[in-house]
Design goal:
Elements (H helix, E strand, L loop, with lengths): L3 E4 L2 E3 L5 E7 L6 E9 L6 E7 L4 E3 L7 E6 L4 E6 L8 E14 L2 E9 L3 E5 L2
Parallel strand pairs: 2-11
Antiparallel strand pairs: 1-3, 3-8, 4-5, 4-9, 5-6, 7-8, 9-10, 9-11
Length: about 120
């Protein structure tokens, strides 16, 4: 019954900005982290950014300084603010949530994933 609903994708010119949203429609038990991945045609799915329960964030080197991940816990929503977009950012972006019933020193030792349906981001003139 848990569903991740993504929105905010679209067509943008190089140098432009988009903000992606991912809202969880149901309660995720033992939610540990949320993040964004992307996949371009012919390429493997790539981690873009993650945010852990305490607020720590991680970014792929290719997006550091341009993308920001943040969340609104009250709305159960995670966002990806994308600035200075480049054509190579073109991909389907997927929201991900990790449920982790058991952690050791705040590290997940075994978890399972929920995935959004994906939203297309196209950066082109």
């Amino acid at each position: 019954q848990v569903q991740l609903v993504e929105s905010g994708g679209g067509l943008v010119q190089p140098g432009g900005s988009l903000r992606l949203s991912c809202a969880a429609s149901g309660v995720i038990f033992s939610l540990y982290a949320m993040g964004w991945y992307r996949q371009a045609p012919g390429k493997q799915r790539e981690l873009v950014a993650t945010i852990i329960g305490g607020g720590s964030t991680n970014y792929a080197d290719s997006v550091k300084g341009r993308f920001i991940i943040f969340r609104d816990n009250a709305k159960n929503t995670v966002y990806l603010q994308m600035d200075s977009l480049k054509p190579e950012d073109t991909a389907v972006y997927y929201c991900n949530a990790v449920a982790c019933p058991t952690t050791v020193q705040n590290m997940c030792i075994m978890g399972y994933d929920y995935w959004g349906q994906g939203t297309q981001v196209t950066v082109s003139s």
